[in-house]
């Protein structure tokens, strides 16, 4: 869900902004998303907020609990494993297709993601770097020109951000950028076999950086997290 594509103040815009805050780990799993507080933060109505939360619930980023309200979702260990198993099935083949369809313009878009990710890391903004890293994977699916698979990967990457927030125990594994650099070299040389293998290895490294034991996170202050 792209905030830039939505009109400011609409439910789509609010949903996109909340989604970005979730991806950047400003709103960790378990955070209560009070309608009144969000409406005040965005200077909008509870009706608009309710629609935004419904959209995020549809993407499985938010849980709507009867008589309790909305919360940032907390994936279980089983769900975490399923998400990364699904990514392992989809993304390597999609990466192969992207390599075969790679153009100079597409390569430049990927490089822009890498550059922005580096800048975020240099600025000490690991949340922003994670957000950009996830979108690097979505952009690969977009270049593959497989819209149905792109939609699946987009949802899986979104859910991965929740999983990382809960189960991440080796930050260096996700902050290091060698995997993405190696992929860029494979894209540059149009080596589809290498690109597919590198994506397989990259996803295995991501899983290895997680401590898949049941746990909960500490909810954040909504006002502080949204910077409003």
Question: Would you kindly provide a brief summary of this structure?
Answer:
The chain is mainly alpha-helical. The protein has helices at about 10-25, 35-40, 45-60, 75-100, 105-120, 125-145, 145-165, 170-175, 180-190, 190-210, 220-225; strands spanning about 30-35, 60-65, 70. The relative contact order is 0.17.
Textual characterization of the structure:
With 228 residues, the protein is mainly α. Helices cover 68% and strands 4% of the residues. It is built from 11 helices and 3 strands, in the order H-E-H-H-E-E-H-H-H-H-H-H-H-H. A hairpin with a 3-residue loop joins strand 2 (62-65) and strand 3. It is globular and about 55 Å long. It starts with 10 loop residues before the first helix and ends with a helix.
* Regions with little confidence, pLDDT below 50 for 5+ residues: none
Major sheet: 3 strands, antiparallel
Total beta strands:
3
Based on CA atoms alone, the radius of gyration comes out at 18 Å
Approximate strand percentage = under 5%
Question: What overall form do the CA principal axes indicate?
Answer: globular
Counted by DSSP, the helix tally is: 11
Mean pLDDT: 86
Name the helicity range: 55-70%
N/C terminus separation: 21 Å
Protein topology:
Elements: H1 11-23, E1 32-33, H2 35-42, H3 46-58, E2 62-65, E3 69-72, H4 77-101, H5 104-122, H6 126-143, H7 147-167, H8 171-175, H9 178-188, H10 192-208, H11 222-226
Antiparallel strand pairs: 1-3, 2-3
Helix pairs in contact: 1-3, 2-3, 4-6, 4-7, 4-10, 5-6, 5-9, 6-7, 9-10
């Amino acid at each position: 869900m792209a905030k830039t594509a939505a009109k400011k103040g609409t439910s789509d815009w609010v949903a996109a902004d909340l989604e970005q805050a979730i991806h950047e780990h400003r709103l960790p799993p378990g955070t209560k998303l009070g309608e009144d507080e969000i409406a005040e933060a965005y200077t909008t109505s509870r009706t608009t907020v309710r629609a935004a939360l419904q959209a995020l619930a549809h993407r499985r980023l938010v849980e709507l609990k009867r008589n309790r309200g909305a919360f940032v979702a907390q994936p279980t260990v089983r769900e975490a494993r399923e998400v990364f198993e699904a990514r392992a099935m989809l993304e390597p083949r999609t990466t192969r297709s992207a390599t075969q369809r790679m153009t100079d313009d597409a390569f430049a878009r990927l490089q822009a993601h890498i550059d922005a990710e580096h800048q975020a890391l240099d600025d000490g903004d690991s949340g922003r770097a994670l957000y950009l890293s996830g979108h690097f994977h979505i952009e690969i699916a977009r270049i593959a020109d497989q819209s149905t698979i792109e939609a699946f990967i987009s949802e899986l990457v979104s859910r991965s951000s929740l999983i990382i927030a809960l189960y991440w125990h080796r930050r260096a594994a996700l902050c290091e950028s060698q995997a993405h650099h190696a992929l860029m070299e494979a894209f540059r040389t149009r080596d589809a076999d290498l690109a597919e293998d590198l994506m397989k290895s990259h996803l295995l490294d991501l899983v290895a950086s997680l401590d898949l034991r049941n746990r909960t996170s500490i909810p954040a202050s909504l006002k502080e997290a949204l910077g409003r």
